[in-house]
Amino acid sequence: MARGKLMRAAEQLYAEQGFAAVSIRQIGEAAGQRNKTAVQYHFTSRDELIKTILTEHAEAIERRRFAMVEALAPPGEVTLADQIACIVLPTIEHHVELGTPSWYARFLAQAQVEPQLRDHTVRIHLHSPSLRRMRELGHLRWPEPPDGTAAFLPTMIRQLSVHMAAELETDLARTEVTGAPAEQAWRRLGADLTVAVCGMCSALLKLS
To answer: Residues 87-102: pLDDT tens digits?
Structure first.
């Protein structure tokens, strides 16, 4: 129970104030822990706390994505939009499930540019079992243009998805939008991201 309170307090504080502005002691206090070393006791370090939070969310997203991947038609019958939806929409639905206010999108946006956390953040989101499963089934095998124009495509998809989610989460928190309107906003973002990513893929991969 104390462990979960520390994770939630850390996620909110980091999302709202940034990693550099929040001390381990502040996290313990926000979680109602009298022991000043509560974070070290449960997680050994700040980075281990952050990685645990990231992993918890990633596992929830993975469960959704695996279900979508297994429901895909054979490779020759699956559209580009279907494949992109499997990448984008599980995270969107996770945000819907979190409700409003939430802090994960802003937390993730910071974690992926934090030097000590970037590699871990990218690995658990881009090298996940569900994406490996998609490749095993014959999906995500797009032609690679000889001129190298698509070299940064995975990074572009990640940056667009993560930072647009952080923008929406910020807007929803600031305007105190909750319930059905918040769900609609998230799903609209999911639809828009799917279209935008399909457009990038079509342009950079020279798909017809």
So the answer is: 999 999 999 999 999 9
**C-beta of residue 173 within 8 angstroms of C-beta of residue 101:** yes
pLDDT at 176 over 90: yes
Question: What's the whole-number mean pLDDT along residues 177-193?
Answer: 97
- As a whole-number percent, the residues of the chain with pLDDT over 90 amount to 71
Is domain 1-44 in CATH 1.10.10.60, yes or no?
A: yes
The token pair that represents 54 in the structure block: 């990231």
Task: Give the DSSP per-residue string, 137-205.
Answer: TT-S-----TT-TTTTHHHHHHHHHHHHHHHHHHHHHHHT--HHHHHHHHHHHHHHHHHHHHHHHHHHT
- pLDDT, residue 109, reads 96
Going by C-alpha positions, the residue among 208, 109, 87, 82 that lies closest to residue 168 is 109
CA distances (Å), origin 67, targets 42, 64, 176: 32, 5, 32
- Give 150 or 35, the one with higher predicted confidence: 35
Q: 141-150 burial by CB neighbour count: b if 16+ within 10 A, else e?
A: ebeeeeeeeb
Cβ(106)–Cβ(168) below 8 Å: no
Residue 73 and residue 77: Cα distance in Å, rounded? 6
Domain spans in the chain, listed from the N-terminal domain onward: 1-44, 53-204
Residue 143 confidence (pLDDT) = 67
DSSP-assigned letters across all residues of 80-130: HHHHHHHHHHHHHHHHHHH-SS--HHHHHHHHTTSTTTHHHHHHHHHS-HH
